[in-house]
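Whiteboard transcription, Tuesday session. T.W. wrote the structure tokens on the left side:
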């Protein structure tokens, strides 16, 4: 997976590649789909949601440009796999999931596999986690109709927000960096994510 799907397609950050080499993706996939855990596509995890394609996980993680001391917020825990990848690259990861059943399974898997610097929270994460802000990185792994202002407000100086933005079925992954109180936006790649549902996302 790492050599053929990630490095060969231009993922160059060795820390991201090493993290994805070490995180056991099969542990985050429902048992009946484990034989496909390292294939080049998303997989169903229940509640009509998915664990993202490995390549998208790598692209978005690379765009976050994490340092070991960074504190990260993820919105859209899903299986917990992305949070596990982040946990090897940062000091603490807060991750929010709106489906109770997924949050519970992700929390259990993360504990079993040993990722103790990840805190799973069950709620609408579209407004972020103001109590724990500012964050060095915020990653949204669901597609938003627009960039939620609440998330920009929760970035620290130099902080990065990586988020898919656009229509329900097709988005552009953007990276927004906060410099001197101003925001610089870059388009990263086209992508297809399930919708971000909530106060600052799509309606149910
Ligand atoms: N990062 C996940 C992983 O590694 O498995 C995959 C995320 S999946 C593509 C998107 C997730 O975002 C779904 O589990 C969905 O329930 C969740 N989600 C959608 N809107 C949300 C919201 N407002 N707050 C928290 N989670 C949300």
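and on the right, the sequence the group agreed on:
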């Amino acid at each position: 997976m790492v050599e053929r799907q990630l490095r060969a397609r231009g993922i160059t950050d060795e820390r991201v590649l090493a993290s994805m080499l070490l995180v056991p993706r099969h542990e985050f996939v429902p048992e009946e789909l484990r034989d496909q855990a390292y294939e080049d596509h998303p997989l169903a995890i229940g509640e009509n949601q998915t664990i993202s394609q490995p390549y998208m996980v790598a692209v978005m993680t690379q765009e976050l440009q994490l340092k070991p001391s960074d504190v990260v917020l993820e919105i859209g825990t899903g299986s917990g796999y992305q949070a596990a990848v982040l946990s090897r690259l940062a000091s603490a990861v807060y991750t929010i999931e709106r489906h109770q059943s997924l949050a519970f399974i992700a929390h259990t898997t993360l504990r079993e596999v040993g990722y103790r610097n990840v805190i799973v929270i069950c709620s609408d994460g579209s407004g972020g986690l103001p109590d724990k802000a500012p964050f060095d990185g915020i990653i949204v792994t669901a597609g938003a109709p627009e960039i939620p202002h609440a998330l920009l407000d929760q970035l620290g100086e130099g902080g990065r927000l990586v988020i898919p933005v656009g229509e329900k079925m097709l988005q552009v992954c953007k990276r927004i960096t906060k410099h001197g109180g101003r925001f610089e936006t870059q388009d990263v790649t086209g992508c297809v994510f399930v919708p971000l549902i909530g106060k600052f996302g799509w309606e149910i």
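Someone added at the bottom: Residues 49-52, 75-76, 78-79, 81-82, 96-99, 102, 124-126, 141-142, 193-194, 196-198, 201 surround S-adenosylmethionine (CB under 6 Å).
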